[in-house]
TrEMBL record, chain A:
Domain ABC transporter, first and last residues per copy: 15-265
Primary localisation category: membrane
Gene3D superfamilies: P-loop containing nucleotide triphosphate hydrolases
Name the record gives this protein: ABC transporter ATP-binding protein
Annotated compartments: Cell membrane
Keyword ATP-binding: yes
From TrEMBL, chain B:
One biological process term in Gene Ontology: transmembrane transport
Transmembrane portions of the chain: 38-58, 98-126, 138-155, 161-179, 217-242, 272-293
Protein known as: ABC transporter permease
SUPFAM superfamilies attached to this UniProt entry: MetI-like
Source species, domain of life: Bacteria
Subcellular location field: Cell membrane
Signal peptide start and end residues: none
InterPro entries hit by this protein: BP-dependent_transpt_permease (IPR050366), MetI-like (IPR000515), MetI-like_sf (IPR035906), OppC_N (IPR025966)
PANTHER family named among the record's database cross-references: D,D-DIPEPTIDE TRANSPORT SYSTEM PERMEASE PROTEIN DDPC-RELATED, OLIGOPEPTIDE TRANSPORT SYSTEM PERMEASE PROTEIN APPC
Family: Belongs to the binding-protein-dependent transport system permease family.
Bilayer topology annotation: Multi-pass membrane protein
Length: 334, 304
């Protein structure tokens, strides 16, 4: 185990998601939260997943780890992480070992993701013991190294309780926990939502820096177009539990193809120019009835609706190098 | 915000909290904060000491004195004497061991069974939860006291462990339910979710992450279970449903009321009052000390 821990391979790991379906079982019936998602997460790249609240992006992230909380249930599909296998079918114990060691996860509210009764250093040791790390001394050293890199006083932080740290510090500690076992794939679920602009900028800076240094595969989940545009190499747009559009960040931002992406980009307020240039997207996210219906999920809010949109759902198709979109308006659909 | 120089500092030891005040040290600081807590702790320690060394201070057969039956309070008999002229103080001191040991065992049984079952059922849910909670419901419906009365006809309660065991296995239902509900709310908290995604083992999560967070609640229940069990067993002896084999506080109460007529004669009053006062003082000590328990377990309160 120790040898495995020391062996640091520098091959970034990709993730292949095939036909993933997750639904939440409610008294109103099963609500699909992630509905037939196919996605390849490129190794060594930062992939931004963007979407509004309830679009299923956090559920997708949990499904990547196979830790969808009840009443959610993964119905079908596969999540193959290079070098580990299908997260959805490997046995419980291997899955537990993969968490933390191969797949790091940073929570939206890292504020609350630390045990209030134990010092940070003790929690690092707990983590090491749970993963059978023999050399705990090296683990602490690594934690210190990471914390130092993030601009924290490592010795002080390791001796602190959670309530003795600020929000930005806790978020960085959360990133440290995700990386301290040398995870190669890191999933950040809205890592900056609870932070002010300055902490946000510094956390993003750290994410970028560590991503490059450690040859990580990073999945960044956000509802903030700015954060994704700033950091991600590739962007995936989610809507109503399905993928709407995907491509390199420049492509998607400069030439959004899906009307939803276009609406999202139009809704960003500019620093200069009149404020009313930012147009809010009208309407509401799809409700359970719309999710069950046959038509395009976005049809109800779409300014460019066609008659066919209400009848059948557009497939998610390739329209160029790494570029996918699900819309009848876009060439490639007939 | 500069990249800290401390990165190169090699860690001295993997035991991170070393060089920090030990638990005993911080515990003492918490207790010393309020005089009531010191008094409470002193009373508890005093009674514990009495239970441990008390029986060695007196001969096995306590001396009787036919000339001092129901003697008044004096230097020789600080709490008066009983119907044989035996010092009430000696009776209290030698009787403490049975009472306290049985109560302690009962509290341990209650807390261990209640906590483990509550944790497991609240954390794993599913069928284990259903099974455990149905058993809990069943235990809750058993009236503990009458059961003890019935059991005492077939079971010899001369050994305090037996008494403690019976009190314990009838008393854990409420605690199991309470621990379960606390576990249910804790398991949804962010740090437990985070522990899952970091791949910490379920046993670790259950006993190192969840258990300490309900530690203060359990410790309070432990102390309250001690007093509760004392009342229950003293009550049993007082009612006389358990055969007297040993001297203890409940036996004293029974004899004072039913044989010595302490309710009607002033003479025997010290005989009745001395076990009552012992119970009162012990309860007071527990209640005073309970105040410190919350702070002992919560690092945030510790510093305030």
């Amino acid at each position: 185990m120790a040898a495995e821990f020391e062996a640091r391979d520098f091959h970034a790991r990709g993730v292949q998601i095939r036909n993933l379906r997750v639904s939440y079982q409610t008294p109103q019936g099963d609500i699909p939260a992630v509905n037939g998602v196919n996605l390849s997460i490129a190794p060594g790249k930062i992939t931004g997943i963007i979407g509004e609240s309830g679009s299923g992006k956090s559920t997708l992230a949990m499904a990547l780890m196979n830790t969808v909380p009840r009443p959610g249930r993964i119905i079908s599909g596969s999540v193959v992480v290079d070098g580990i296998g299908d997260m959805l079918t490997i046995d419980k114990e291997s899955r537990r070992r993969a968490h933390g060691r191969h797949l790091g996860f940073v929570f939206q509210a890292s504020q609350n993701s630390l045990n209030p009764l134990r010092r940070i250093g003790a929690q690092v040791l707990d983590l090491g013991r749970s993963h059978n790390v023999k050399d705990l001394r090296a683990l602490i050293k690594r934690a210190k190294e990471l914390l130092g890199k993030m601009g924290l006083n490592a010795d002080r932080v390791l001796l602190s309780y959670q309530h003795e740290l600020s929000g930005g510090m806790r978020q960085r500690v959360g990133i440290m926990f995700a990386l301290v076992l040398d995870a190669r794939v890191v999933i950040l679920d809205e890592p900056t939502t609870a932070l002010d602009m300055l902490s946000q900028a510094s956390v993003l800076q750290i994410v970028r820096q560590i991503h490059q240094e450690r040859h990580l595969t990073t999945v960044l989940i956000s509802h903030d177009m700015g954060v994704v545009a700033d950091l991600a190499d590739n962007v995936v747009v989610m809507y109503g539990g399905e993928l709407a559009e995907q491509g390199s960040t420049e492509e998607v931002l400069a030439h959004p193809l899906h009307p939803y992406t276009q609406g999202l980009i139009k809704a960003i307020p500019r620093i200069s120019g009149p404020l009313d240039q930012a147009v809010a997207l009208p309407g509401l996210p799809p409700d359970s009835a719309a999710l069950m219906a046959h038509g395009c999920l976005f049809a109800g809010r779409c300014p460019k609706r066609l008659p066919v949109c209400g009848e059948s759902r557009p497939t998610y198709e390739s329209v160029g190098q790494g570029r996918y979109v699900a819309c009848f308006r876009v060439a490639g659909h007939d | 915000m500069s990249v800290a120089e401390s990165t190169s500092v090699s860690p001295k030891t993997p035991r991170v909290p070393s060089g920090h005040p030990t638990f005993i040290h911080t515990a003492w600081r918490v207790i010393a904060k309020k005089p009531g807590r010191i008094v409470g702790l002193a009373i508890i320690l005093f009674f514990a000491l009495m239970a441990i060394v008390g029986p060695y201070l007196y001969p096995r057969q306590l001396p009787i004195n036919p000339n001092a039956i129901y003697a008044a309070i004096s230097w020789k008999y600080p709490l008066g004497t009983d119907f044989e002229g035996t010092s009430n103080l000696a009776l209290i001191v030698t009787g403490a061991r049975y009472v306290l040991f049985a109560a302690f065992m009962a509290a341990i049984f209650t807390v261990v069974i209640g906590t483990v079952l509550g944790l497991v059922s609240g954390y794993y849910l599913g069928w284990s939860d259903s099974v455990i909670m149905r058993i809990t419901d069943f235990v809750l419906t058993i009236p503990g006291f009458p059961l003890l009365v019935v059991l005492s006809t077939v079971w010899n309660f001369g050994q305090p462990v037996a008494m403690g065991f019976v009190l314990g296995i009838t008393g854990w239902g409420g605690l199991a339910r309470a621990v379960r509900s606390q576990t249910l709310s804790l398991r949804e908290r962010g740090f437990i979710e985070a522990a899952h995604t970091l791949g910490l083992s379920p046993v670790h999560i259950l006993f190192k992450e969840i258990l300490p967070n309900i530690g203060s609640y359990i410790a309070m229940n432990l102390l309250l279970a001690v007093t509760g069990s004392i009342y229950a067993e003293v009550g049993l002896f007082f009612l006389g449903v358990v055969p007297f084999q040993v001297n203890n506080w409940g036996v004293m109460l029974n004899l004072a009321v039913f044989s010595a007529g302490a309710m009607s004669s002033v003479q025997a009053l010290p005989y009745l009052l001395s076990p009552l006062i012992a119970l009162l003082v012990l309860t007071l000590g527990v209640v005073l000390f309970l105040d410190a328990v919350d702070e002992l377990f919560n690092p945030r309160l510790k510093e305030a």
